[in-house]
Structures are given as C-alpha cells and as structure tokens.
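Chapter summary example: a protein plus zinc ion.
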Amino acid sequence: MASQSSYLKNSYEEYSPSKVPSILNEGRNGLSSSFQETLQAFTKNKLVFMNTEMENDIFYDTTVYTGSAGFGLFYFMCAITDENDELLKQSLSYINIKKQLKGKRISFLCGDAGPLALATVISYKLGNRVTKKPYRLPEYTVIAERLLALISLLSESPDEVLYGKAGYLYALLFVKKYIPDDTVIPPDHIKKVVRAIIKSGRHYSTQVGSESPLLWQWHDKVYLGAAHGVAGILYMLLQAHDYVDPLDMSDYVEPTLQWLLRQRLGSGNYPSSLGSPRDRLVQWCHGAPGFVPLCVLAHQYFKNDKYLKIAKECGEVVWRRGLCAKGFSLCHGVAGNAYTFIQLYQATKDPVHLYRAGCFMEWCVSARPGSQARAPDRRASLFEGLPGRLYLAEELNHVDTAKFPAFEL
Ligand SMILES: [Zn+2]
C-alpha cells in the first residue's frame, strides 16, 4: 500500500539577508511586534478554550506527557521567566502529588518523577519567597525524598527518556538546576543513575556484539532517536557530564555518539531504529530533530566543529520535511520541530534559524485546513495536544533561554 507523505510541502520563502522578514524585528534577534501580537492573541484565545472546553481532558492523568502536570510545566516555565509567585501557585494547581501517583514509572515525562520534581522546586521557591504556602504543600525536602526513593525502580526500568532511567536522570538534574544544595539531590545519587545507564548500555552492546560501546534496547528494538533511543540517552548523559566519570565519557559516551552519527541516512535524516531502512519520520521523538540538541551540546562539550556541522545539516532536513502531516504536537509534530531552529539559533545566533522557528510557529498558529491529518489522541496533552503550541508561543518571547520541555535543561 502506498503510504501518504508524512509531511507537507514547505512553501515558506527562504530567508534572505537582504530583507527583514515580517515575523522578525529589525535587529533580527527576536520576533516583530506584529507577530508577537498574533501569538498573544492565539495564546489568550486558546487558554480560554482549554479552561472551558477542555478542562476534563487536562486531568486525563497526573503525568507531564499526557496529563495535568504538563499544564503545570507550562505555568512553571511562565512563572520562572517572570519570577511570578502567582503563576507558581497556578502551576501547582495542576500537579497532584497527594497519592502515590502511578507508582510504577520512574521518568519525568511519563512517570512519578515529573510531578515530584516540579512540586519540589515549587515548594522550594514559594517557601523562600512567600510566608504562607498553599494549603498542605509539604516542605521541598520531603517531596525531594520521594523523588529520591523512586531509585528503587531503577533496575527494572528501561533506559530511554520517555519511560526509563534517562528520564529519571532528567528529573534529578531539573531539581538540581533550581536547588543546587547537595543535601537535597546528593551527587552520588545522580552518579548512581548515570552508572546504571552506562552499565546497561555496555551489557547490551556486549550481548549483541555491537560496534558501539554502548547500546540500549526498548521493546526489543534499538531505537536511535530522542524519545526512546540512543540520541535521547546520550543527550541526558551529556547534560549530566559533571556526574559522568571522565573515562566513561572518553571510552564509552563519545565513541557511542560517533557511532550513532554514522547511522545517518543518505537524505541526512536518521532512522527510527537500527536496521530499519525506512526514512519517514522527521519529528522530535524519531529522526533528525532529536539529534540537533545532542549535536549542539556535543559541540560545546567536546569542542569539535563536526558536531555543529551535523546539527546544521539536521536543521536543513527539518526545514524541508518538518511540517508534519500528523499535526502540531511537540512530540511528533511541527511545534516540536520548531525547537530544532531555536536550538540552532541559540548555538549560532544566525537569524536564519530564528526565522525558520517563526515560520513553524506561524504554521502552528494559522492551522490551515489539511495541516493536521487527525485529531491528537489526547488533545490537552502537553506533548500531543494544544498546550505544546502554547508552550512554544510563550517561549518565542524569550528565545535565548527557550528549552524543549522535559528534555533540555
Ligand atoms: Zn512522538
């Protein structure tokens, strides 16, 4: 059966240095005021819609990926940007840590670690700034203990970002970013998680006789991309570089990165999994977009220009093929792909990337007929639904510090 194209043709004009595009400001280092106004109107409208028509959908579950904590993360990002305690309280109202949550999963996105990490930081920030915390919000140290206790699930968890150890590592680093105190998240705790990921990668690589010194499988496949695969795991290890043994970095992590980057397809895209010749998906969870933050960070950390070159080449793939037919989501849609250009803009300060991010945002706002093949499974989910577009629109107001949620620190 002939498969439909997975993306729509990109008809946006190419960026030209000789003319300021209407979505950028004169300095080409931010959005134009007219495009900002468009985004503000979009956000205002959609927030009203979410809080009236979609309220029940928001509370589908407690997680960041599909549930209310995703909305919590949206308000958290707004609160941190504005140093706004009211927004922190609003974020908290979407985070449910009263019960044992799902109790089975360890990761930030789909497990208990996301709501617990968010609640820890909110409790810390409110405790330091306001005299009266919201009713029954425990001390941050108490919530952090629950986050640390999730390590009991480590050995039975997979390694990847969405459900596994790398997703737990993100949660720990997230708290560490806002609460550097070593008694809250002890460095040894983070190192334990890092070592477990590396051990598991060495074990599986040896078992299957791989050329790559580290290899991980998820559901019997070696995925390569950000959500379930090697790119996402390596990206978390690089973000955790302070806790990675330097010998592990040089003997395992960097050679694995080099092996991974050699798996590139002729088109410049990356396959979803090892041994799959298919070249179909260009979205954060599978394919080139997830390799950009990895290569940008690898360039900064290993000081090798080859990595930045690959990041830029991935950006070209996303520009050509990143207007996903599936729709606008962060995980497998156009909003997530817009972050590719934000990451490249932050790394290079070249306005072409900011322009491209703006074009993808415009696509998400205008939502032309036919630009979403089917409605998302969970329309109020941060990663699959409307909040992802709101998150991106908000972040474009402070593009120098924008971060792909639950992935970049
Ligand atoms: Zn996805």
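Key point: The CA atoms of residues 106 and 168 lie 6 Å apart.
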